[in-house]
Specification:
alpha/beta
């Protein structure tokens, strides 16, 4: 069975910032095929950055959108009181899959719930925290 991985918005900025192919890196890290999942709420977050961010952020967000096109978009409903991180937490539990993020607070919350986390270590490689 192919491992699904939910990818948070900030990870799509890694290739532009650190010249790392996140998909190749994840395949090597996991040593198996995986299906990158982009939640519709995360995609909207990146689109907003592209439209409303500074010129530099807008350029990086546009690049992030191109990278995000390699993912399967899963439509999710966001409750009015929910943050994007809470949607990710909910969907990771529901889908029983790891999350790729560099958000420290989100990583901590995921690990408290025993959800494996993939994150950027030392600006040059992805690392897995927890077990699949």
């Amino acid at each position: 069975m192919t491992q699904k991985i939910i990818i948070d918005a900030n990870l799509f900025f890694v290739p532009a910032q650190f010249r790392i192919d996140i998909f190749e890196n994840m395949a090597t890290l996991l040593n198996q095929k995986f299906e990158p999942i982009l939640l519709s709420t995360t995609f909207q977050e990146i689109q907003q950055m592209a439209e409303k961010g500074t010129p530099k952020l807008g350029k990086q967000a546009a690049m992030a959108i191109k990278i995000a096109e390699k993912c399967r978009i899963v439509n999710v409903e966001k409750n009015p009181e929910e943050t994007n991180d809470e949607v990710i937490l909910r969907m990771a539990a529901q889908m029983k899959c790891p999350v790729a993020t560099n958000d420290r607070e989100l990583r901590k919350r995921l690990r408290e719930r025993d959800v494996p986390v993939i994150f950027l270590r030392g600006k040059h490689q992805l690392e897995l925290e927890g077990s699949l």
